[in-house]
Amino acid sequence: TTTTTTTTTTPLGSLSLHNATLYHETIDAMVESGMTRHLGVLDLTGIQPLTDDMLEKIIVPAAPNLRRLSVKNCRRLTNKVCDMLQTCTQLTALDVGGAYNLQPPRVIELVCHLMALTELHASGLSWTAETVRELTSLKSSWKALSLGFLVRTNAPLKDCLQLTTLSKTLQSLALPFCEHLVDAALLGVLGRHLPNVRALDVRGNGG
Question: Alpha-carbon distance 32 to 105, whole Å?
């Protein structure tokens, strides 16, 4: 007689607290309930009171299964976030756009630890030609990148973006408000080298 054991996996949930008012008591209740262990997607966009310590309560070790996380425009967060998120090894998508206390070199260090990551939205963090070049060369599996508000540089942006690395997988690219860096010539280069891109955001770029 052969006995077959069937293992069922509980689907991961999604929680959005977009622009919510969040207190320490709320976070404590979330963690104590055990709900965070079952989250695959967590959207904390725009929660102004969110601090490093508050986020750490949710993430470490209470949410080991996160696949997608947004802390966009959470402006009290610091580089400490880049350390704590290194434990979220299943992350495939991360949005830290507008969390302007995070420094690009620290974000790059974080990316090196997140082997599953294919989407990074990090506009408004004062990216330079050097940090863009380093970031885009890290992976050959990027699907989406958002790097708006780049610091002006003398190096052509086409030379900073590692187009050969990005060409096979990139589907979405956002370069909004990169004044004097995004022009018709660059768009032509992107069109020729990034055949799989279906979404291109170049708002706020004159000329």
Answer: 34
The pair phi, psi for residue 120, each rounded to 5°, is -135, 125
Q: Whole-prediction pTM value?
A: 0.92
Distance CA 199, CA 23 (A): 36
Order the strands of the 199-201 sheet from edge to edge: 13-16, 39-43, 68-70, 93-95, 119-121, 144-146, 172-174, 199-201
Three-state DSSP class for residue 41: strand
Write phi, then psi, for 43 (nearest 5 degrees). Answer: -115, 110
Q: From CA 142, how far away is CA 162, in angstroms rounded?
A: 11
Place of tokens 């008012």: 21
Phi, psi of 184 (to 5 degrees): -60, -35
Three-state secondary structure call for residue 201: strand
- Dihedral over alpha carbons 170, 122, 23, 57 (to 10 degrees): 70
Instruction: Dump pLDDT digits (tens) for 128-187.
Output: 989 999 999 998 899 999 999 998 777 788 888 999 889 999 999 999 998 788 888 899
Tens digits of per-residue pLDDT, 1-15?
A: 555 544 446 678 999
Structure tokens at 124: 């408004």
